[in-house]
Inverse folding.
């Protein structure tokens, strides 16, 4: 680990600093997980070795719980699954994801010792567990998990003290990282990456984390000086500073003192009214529209969860009619309405509407997010794809290029999404050239392309986990 060093970060405790200069898109370090497990909810639909979502998976013949793409994945996952397999068989049921993860970590440590590779900067014993900070309800859940863990943990495995066991539950509670599927679109599991646990939070960070081919990469978002602290954001910046601070306090047990929180930077934009022909709405009008938007969001979320997509469209449209003339395009509730509406309409194949709202969303995001924020890149990608589907090739190509530039920094050239985007960029570039030469040929060619290449990115809306925006997975 020549790129980073542990240091005492002022006011934050232990942190990581750069030991040389970095530029946007540099990989500061890449780290494999100590262990990772599939979420309970999706354990039958993803491969337990490579975490791909797949329609046809093969079951482990022994425990009937683990699923794999094929023999290769099964063999690759066997070292990690071996003890779990036997434990599940004799336990007679499937323990929850937290218990499965802690057990896997402990089997691995028992076998290999606490330093698993020479790039590991801390031992797992040294990681914070924050158990003394936990609230009563969480402590109760922890006790239940430990109780079940003891039933699950085989007598033939090495025995540990309750303190040791609770330490690991505490560690994954505040440091379990969401593992996403092959496209990075859905959180499908949770894993532990010890070096990542050392990277402190900042609401306006200089790094981002991405899972790429089974390893996490810490990537630089811009120029970083030698000696500068490396930071990532644990929560989505699209919350007000007060809400971010609340989330960070309850989930990660610290008070954020970053510049953006201290000075409430961009909070005003996130609840702003829109000026129409030089006239600003009154505070009262903005407040009323904000409250209305909030109520509609709740109804919309439940309709979306139930898969009632036409109801989602109805609710969003009704809301927009009332609030768009009052609220700015940076208003965070308005942005959520647009985001959901464009996603659902793309799924229902109303591409023109989907494109319009995706574009509005990107315009708002551009004023709020860091220019190299991954969520901004993903939003631009969605806007690009929907414009392309709607036949608006010029805007579509522009958005795809914008998304590609951001993802080259946040995801890097080898990430599957960046590769998809690159293919998309070449396609839209060619189509744009054709469009400028001969519109008729362009349209007939596009129709053909749409027919035999349905875009894989347009999955069912409810499968998108908001948790992908949060760095660490919250245990349930
Ligand atoms: Zn696999
Ligand atoms: Zn098995
Ligand atoms: Zn902050």
């Amino acid at each position: 680990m020549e790129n980073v060093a542990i240091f005492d970060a002022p006011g934050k405790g232990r942190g990581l600093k750069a030991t040389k200069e970095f530029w946007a898109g540099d990989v500061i370090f890449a780290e494999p997980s100590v262990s990772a497990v599939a979420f309970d909810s999706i354990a039958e639909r993803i491969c337990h070795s490579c975490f791909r979502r797949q329609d046809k998976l093969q079951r482990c013949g022994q425990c009937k719980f683990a699923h794999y793409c094929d023999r290769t994945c099964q063999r690759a996952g066997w070292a990690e699954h071996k003890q779990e397999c036997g434990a599940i068989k004799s336990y007679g049921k499937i323990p929850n994801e937290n218990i499965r993860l802690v057990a896997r970590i402990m089997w691995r440590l028992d076998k290999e010792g606490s330093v698993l590779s020479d790039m590991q900067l801390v031992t797992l014993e040294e990681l914070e567990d924050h158990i003394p900070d936990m609230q009563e309800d969480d402590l109760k859940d922890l006790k239940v998990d430990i109780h079940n863990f003891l039933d699950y943990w085989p007598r033939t495995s090495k025995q540990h003290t309750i303190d040791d066991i609770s330490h690991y539950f505490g560690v994954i509670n505040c440091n379990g990282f969401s593992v996403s599927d092959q496209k990075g679109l859905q959180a499908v599991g949770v894993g532990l990456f010890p070096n990542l646990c050392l990277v402190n939070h900042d609401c306006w960070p200089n790094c981002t984390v991405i899972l790429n081919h089974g390893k996490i990469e810490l990537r630089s978002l811009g120029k970083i000086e030698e000696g500068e602290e490396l930071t990532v954001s644990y929560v989505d910046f699209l919350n007000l500073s007060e809400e971010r601070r609340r989330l960070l306090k309850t989930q990660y047990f610290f008070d954020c003192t970053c510049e953006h929180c201290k000075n409430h930077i961009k909070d005003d934009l996130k609840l702003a009214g829109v000026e129409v022909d030089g006239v600003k709405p009154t505070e009262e009008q903005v407040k009323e529209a904000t409250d209305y938007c909030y109520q509609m969001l709740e109804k919309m979320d439940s309709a979306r969860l139930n898969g009632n997509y036409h109801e989602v469209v109805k609710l969003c449209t009704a809301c927009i009619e009332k609030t768009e003339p009052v609220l700015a395009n940076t208003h965070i509730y308005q942005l959520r309405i647009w985001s959901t509406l464009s996603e659902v309409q793309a799924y229902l194949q109303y591409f023109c509407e989907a494109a319009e709202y995706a574009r509005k969303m990107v315009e708002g995001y551009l004023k709020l997010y860091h220019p190299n924020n991954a969520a901004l890149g993903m939003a631009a990608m969605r806007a690009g794809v929907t414009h392309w589907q709607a036949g608006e090739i010029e805007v579509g190509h522009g958005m795809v290029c914008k998304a590609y530039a951001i993802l080259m920094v946040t995801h890097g050239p080898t990430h599957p999404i960046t590769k998809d985007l690159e293919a998309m960029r070449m396609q839209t570039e060619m189509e744009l050239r054709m469009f400028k030469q001969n519109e008729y040929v362009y349209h007939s060619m596009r129709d053909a392309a749409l027919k035999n290449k349905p875009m894989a990115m347009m999955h069912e809306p409810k499968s998108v986990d908001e948790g992908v925006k949060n760095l660490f997975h919250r245990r349930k």
